[in-house]
Amino acid sequence: MQDLPNFIPKLVTRNSQGELKIIWSDEKECVYNLRKLRALCQCALCRHELTGERLVKLEDIPENINLLKAETVGNYALHFTWSDTHTTGIYSFDYLRSLCN
Ligand SMILES: [Zn+2]
Predict the structure, then answer these.
(1) Where are the domains of the chain?
(2) Which residues surround ligand 1, an ion (CB under 5 A)?
């Protein structure tokens, strides 16, 4: 049973630079650089499940990485489909929110 997230995205969109923009349920606006976001993927292909070691690093990500799709998973996460054919990344709302200052 997943704890309910503290904040929920109200709007998931792109800004004029093509970066991911999320407007949260408390009206906070967060902008995410796509390449950095891709490098922060928490899936087992990108991050070792036991050691936490990053298996895919920022320099491994194409400069022109694009986000093809962002879909809600249940009521706790976004699933991203990336242009480098990576499709297994699920970013919890809490994790996305923690990346935003
Ligand atoms: Zn991944």
Answers:
(1) 9-98
(2) 41, 43, 45-46, 89
Going from the Cα of 25 to the center of ligand 1, the distance in angstroms, rounded, reads 26
Residue 47 CA to ligand 1 center (angstroms) comes to 7
User: Is there a contact between 32 and 20 (Cβ–Cβ < 8 Å)?
Assistant: yes
Is the domain defined by 9-98 classed in CATH 3.40.50.300? no
> What digits encode the pLDDT tens for the residues 61-72?
999 999 999 999
